[in-house]
Amino acid sequence: MIVRIMGEGQVEISADDISVLNELDSELEAAIEASDEKAFRVKLHALLDKVRHVGKALPDDSLEPSELILPPADASIEEVREMLGDQGLIPG
Predict the structure, then answer these.
(1) How far is it, in rounded angstroms, from Cα 26 to Cα 66?
(2) Is residue 60 domain-resident?
(3) pLDDT tens digits, residue range 16-61?
(4) Is the pLDDT at 85 greater than 80, yes or no?
(5) CB 9 within 8 A of CB 74
(6) 23 vs 59, 72, 89, CA distance in Å?
(7) What's the CA gap between 39 and 47, in Å, rounded?
(8) Which Pfam families match (predicted)?
């Protein structure tokens, strides 16, 4: 799966890593639902850090379509709330 972190670029994520990312996504969604800014910030950074860690960076000139777009690390709780789908930021 090709994932874009807004403002950073794209990474390729293996299907094996999706379940771990979904767990972090669920924790982030819970923080948003609780309007807990501190927990939101921690969970957003944890999710993005994990994507960066498990993902293989694609070259900047790559033209691969992104299957998933994640917010930047400095996104507000409201911005991320607007990006949430029925299954959070990461479907599955």
Answers:
(1) 21
(2) yes
(3) 999 999 999 999 999 999 999 999 999 999 999 999 999 999 998 8
(4) no
(5) no
(6) 28, 19, 11
(7) 12
(8) PspAA
Rounded Cα distance, 10 and 29, in Å:
22
Helix (H/G/I), strand (E/B), else coil: 50: helix
Domain presence at residue 92: no
34-40: long-range contacts, CB 8 A cutoff, minimum separation 24:
35/77, 37/77, 40/77, 40/80
| Closest to 6 measured CA to CA, from 42, 50, 48 | 48
Q: Are 23 and 74 in contact, with CB atoms under 8 Å apart? A: no
In a domain, 22, yes or no: yes
In total, how many domains does the chain have?
Answer: 1
Cα–Cα distance measured from residue 44 to residue 84, given in angstroms and rounded to the nearest whole number: 13
Quickly count helices (H) and strands (E) in the chain: 3, 4
